[in-house]
Amino acid sequence: MATNPIFPNTRTALQTLENQLAAANPVGAQASQAVADALDATATLLTALNQEEAAQLSGQMIAAGQDVKDAVQKLTNLKKQLAQIASDIGILGDIADGLDTALSGCKTVFGI
Amino acid sequence: MMASGCGLSPLAKRATAYSKAASTATLEVKSAYQLVEESYYDVEVASLQKNFDTDGFDPAKFQPFLSEEDMKARTQLLEGLEQYATLLAAVSGNQEVTALDKQSEAVGKKVQALSKDSGLQTVAKNASMDGGIAAAAVDALGRVLMEREMAKELPSILDSMQKPMDQICQLLEDDIGDPQTGGLRNQLKLDYDRLIKDQTAFIYANEKTMSPSEKQDAIAKLPELAAAEKKGDAALAQTQEALKKLATTHDALVDTKKSKDAPAFESLVSQLEEEGQQLGAVYSATTAKGK
Prior knowledge:
The complex is a heterodimer.
Chain A: H1 6-23, H2 29-55, H3 66-85, H4 95-109
Helix pairs in contact in A: 1-2, 1-4, 2-3, 3-4
Chain B: H1 10-55, H2 68-92, H3 98-115, H4 131-146, H5 154-176, H6 184-206, H7 212-255, H8 263-286
Helix pairs in contact in B: 1-2, 1-6, 1-7, 1-8, 2-3, 2-4, 2-5, 3-4, 4-5, 5-7, 6-7, 7-8
């Protein structure tokens, strides 16, 4: 896993997205819920990567659980909404491209 | 277990001082894992509160961040380091070490089993540490704890443990990681970022039904969460520093084998002791153990 470049590349794409969402400043119920949901999903995927790395110390490996599959689905569903509100909530740059990179990497890394 | 100091060689006195400082610092490394388990638990509770109406409560979904097996590997590694510190003090004091031998042997066996774990051999989180090196370092620690004859010869123990100590400390430092690239520090950031954004969404979703003081309290929680994240990350970074110092002080101890005076070592060991005490205070203030 550590030698496959898809693993660090996916982590970098997810972390970039997580940083953008954590720095966002949504105002109002709809925007804040979209950001919270997207951040939950992104953090769930990064947590799974952290757990997979931690498991290497004791020899246990983690298969993609339902929470990982749900998180990928949630991010896919939120892509359009996030792209629409990105500039309003202070997200700079193209969030859709970053999301696509993160999602395609996750599908490979977790075998979804 | 500590030696009186009377009639000890300069090296034995230094090993005793190192043992005391190392025990304190190693003990506090465990708190780093506890800190992140607590923030992860808070996220699980927040998620339950958010999704309760649709998902209900499933106790099986409440799991620690690190599985029992993963935590056990780390606990055994830290127990091995603590036992090594204890062994140094006992050997330095020329005390009867039979009881200690048994304890060391038990810990050594566990540590050696860990070194043969297939997962440990594949640890390759950074270029300076490949899985084979990690396994060899852990195996060396286990061997030192198990070999009773060798345990009575302080200089040879120190020699054989110089590299393994450096490598095990590096392994644990890597495990604590970095906020952006992985490990405990990254997990802590993820947890608090989620808690902050969930709290923000909660306020906006419920502000119409909240009283003014309820809304004030809910808003006041946001800077508290941000401050807790900052404090927690600082504690984890300080733990990495303590691990670095644990290794460099051990290196300095090895270097002073033939010296009568060792001012550089004395300075390092007092820094290590101070670092361990500071960490104890920091973790008491930031984890449930101090509440």
